[in-house]
Amino acid sequence: MSENSAYNDLVSLYRRIGIINDAIAILDWDQSTIMPEGSASARSEQLATLSVLSHDLLTHPKISELLDKVDFNKGKIDSWKVANLEGMKRAHLHAISVPADLVKEQSRANSTCQMEWRKAKQENDFAFLMPSLNDVIEVTREVSVAKSENLGLSPYDCLLDTYEPGCRSERIDEIFSNHEKFLSGFLGEVMEFQSKQPKVVPLKGPFSVDKQKKLGLKFMKDFGFDFSRGRVDVSLHPFCGGGLNDVRITTRYDENDFTSSLMGVLHETGHAIYEHGLPESWSYQPVGSARGMAMHESQSLLLEMQVCRSYSFMIYAAPIIKRAFSGSGQAWEVDNLHRLYTRVSPGFIRVDADEVTYPAHIILRYRLERALISNDLLVADLPAAWNEGMASLLGITPPNDSLGCLQDIHWPSGSFGYFPTYTIGAVAAAQFYNAAKKQLNDLEGEISKGKFQSLLSWLRSNIHSKGSLLSADELLHTASGDNLNIKIFQEHLQSRYLN
Amino acid sequence: MSENSAYNDLVSLYRRIGIINDAIAILDWDQSTIMPEGSASARSEQLATLSVLSHDLLTHPKISELLDKVDFNKGKIDSWKVANLEGMKRAHLHAISVPADLVKEQSRANSTCQMEWRKAKQENDFAFLMPSLNDVIEVTREVSVAKSENLGLSPYDCLLDTYEPGCRSERIDEIFSNHEKFLSGFLGEVMEFQSKQPKVVPLKGPFSVDKQKKLGLKFMKDFGFDFSRGRVDVSLHPFCGGGLNDVRITTRYDENDFTSSLMGVLHETGHAIYEHGLPESWSYQPVGSARGMAMHESQSLLLEMQVCRSYSFMIYAAPIIKRAFSGSGQAWEVDNLHRLYTRVSPGFIRVDADEVTYPAHIILRYRLERALISNDLLVADLPAAWNEGMASLLGITPPNDSLGCLQDIHWPSGSFGYFPTYTIGAVAAAQFYNAAKKQLNDLEGEISKGKFQSLLSWLRSNIHSKGSLLSADELLHTASGDNLNIKIFQEHLQSRYLN
Lengths: 499, 499
What we know:
The structure is a homodimer. Chain A has 20 helices and 3 strands. Chain A has helices spanning 3-33, 40-58, 61-69, 79-96, 100-122, 126-151, 155-163, 169-195, 209-222, 259-277, 293-308, 311-324, 334-341, 358-373, 382-394, 420-439, 443-448, 453-462, 472-480, 486-497, and strands spanning 230-234, 240-243, 246-251. The first copy, chain A, has a 3-stranded mixed sheet with strand order 1-3-2. The first copy, chain A, is mostly helical. Chain A has 2 domains: 1-96; 113-222 and 254-499, Neurolysin, domain 3. The interface between A and B is medium-sized, with 32 and 33 residues.
């Protein structure tokens, strides 16, 4: 078999895996949006069956054989192929590291715990969750150790690498320590600064779902969302899902408050335009996929935080928002809407957190999950550790575990190593946007006029069209001339929240 | 390996196939209802990939081996298992009869022709369709010949057997000849009779989609549609799809005429309650599936034609319909609505045909498709043969092929052997309903009061809960005490249309 034919066989195999994963993604979307409740268990079986098929293909010994046959010598094959082979190898290594029994055991532990979590959260009963959360942590630890040998990484770094290839805890430690120090002074300054500013004038509802939907669609269109290759629907927890040429974002509407749904739509739109901009000729191949969860989050946060919560954007958006809800008075003016969208206030709940306090929620979770995985923290001690961390980072103590360590679904569903990507994404977003502003002529002026084409083009050529050709670090460096740099994020915060 | 363990292995395999087929069904539904147009080709690949996986499992040599190990001796294992094994064998035989290359060739020919058909129909250009339709017929013939040897049936009977197990052309010939003779006199009598009746008073629209939807939901609920295990949505061509505990029906709304959408919803509801009533403990097994397309159609037609177009139903429904659209005047009274829903008028289009003329459309298609498959009719001669048949059966001649042999998607998509199930279903529906009326106390009285529970229970215990335990003939005989009997259908027509 020639080297080329081995490569082509790999391409076919990964294409097949990608297609099955796309089918899974649509079934997942359906489950979260419109599926009748009575078919939950049938759907679980469909998803499990297809996941096993996909996993069986990805772990097939034939892939190892084929990978061995292909020469990785970078001089001989083009860089896209090299990156594709690296992506193939990485995915295969991750998958074969975990024995089939452990995969099953993990899936079982995660679904049990996830189910019990709903009850525990609702009833504020951490003790009830403890045994199943313990199981999840044990099996996650086992998985991370199994991967560790094959990947040559520490167990926790194997978990990180699942979500963001190349992401390592050493780097995160450094960034998070730096930012914790920064925050300890900055947060107080912001609170002090805001206390001297005019109060936010509240917006009076109700705001009909129809009007909210129309407004969201208007801005999605402005940002170039391609409706011939995507949809927006409603789900309990907003997400961006779907597959190739079929990107499906969701939101939820609150008739008393349109503001968070609107930003949610713009956030998911950022994810969606990344997916839409991936290189079509590398569809279904590892190199044609998005570069990892942190880079994905950078695209949603670039849109939501960097662009849409900026004063420039509000100059454009405020009159449109006002018209959409037939608003009148000061509450609907640029200044007030901008103030509303940049209000900072330490709170217990991560998903409701503002841009300034959000990283504190992540730093806490990152440290706790590392300690849980390394067995330095027992599950029984989690609530106390959580509350101490909140007090230390944000100066507030949750009155109960539902507002504390029970709030997120991530750990009960087995997602360890995911949380850091939120903040790495926020840092990268600031850095990308900063570079775009430098490289494009009067970007903020354009945004204040509702012109987003040059920004979109910049994102397309610097990020989206690269797929996974470059590592996240290379991608950042090529686009911004710098490695991941927390200072740019901090400067952004200073400029936005102290002016 | 013990016999029992061989059986259990078969059950697992067919369960897996069933689960994959369910996933396919949901993706199919999504494609026909809400999928963005730009993902058509990605979706085709998903469906093709999953179909190949399902087909690979069904044709796996292991199934033959396992089937050989199980003793079919009816004395030794219970009748459900026997029927399940027969269903397994039948599905496996159908699948292995066709070589993989031919499966691919058929799929390719069908999709090309189906695509060209849209254009040919729109532009009334039969010549354009001829080459690809010829391909479809040739490959269908090849498939039917390949199956013929393994199944011990004539090639055309193999096609019939795909959709309705056990259905044979000899029987259909007999039934259709009988009915053609009946129709030749009866249709004239009905037209004569109706000409002496008061004219139908037209209903004046527009009828908002919202109101139509609400009305449809109301009747669906009346008939016991379980919304926790199903949905109703919109698609261009109404259908009943989805999977286990997730039955999804569709309709389309015309703001100028609610009547056909409403009956469409009730028709699909008949299909849906059949699916909902299948034996849960045999889920995903051949014996747990519906008994074939003719029996399926009998359930939709029993609801639509036997129940909902009856005078008794209209007594219940007319005031509800009137209220739904705030109607007033004679047009909205029972007599007029019943007259509207039982109006007979020969026309060119099958899907618009009334209950009396519908079988004529089917008889025509059945004869033509048999002749096409047996090579007794050349594709080039199809339009002329079609028009002659319409003239002979209904006394009308289509002015063009779009209103003639180009109207249906069935042949271009490779569905030969499907058409007869519509009329076999209509005959069975009359027979089942006739039996229910005899066995239940004052069923029509109950229906006129909007009480459908005893009918639903009768269908559940006599038909739905049987799955594929009995052959279609046995099912009919057990429920009605008679073999398939066209006379009961004809008596129903006489009683409804000449009184």
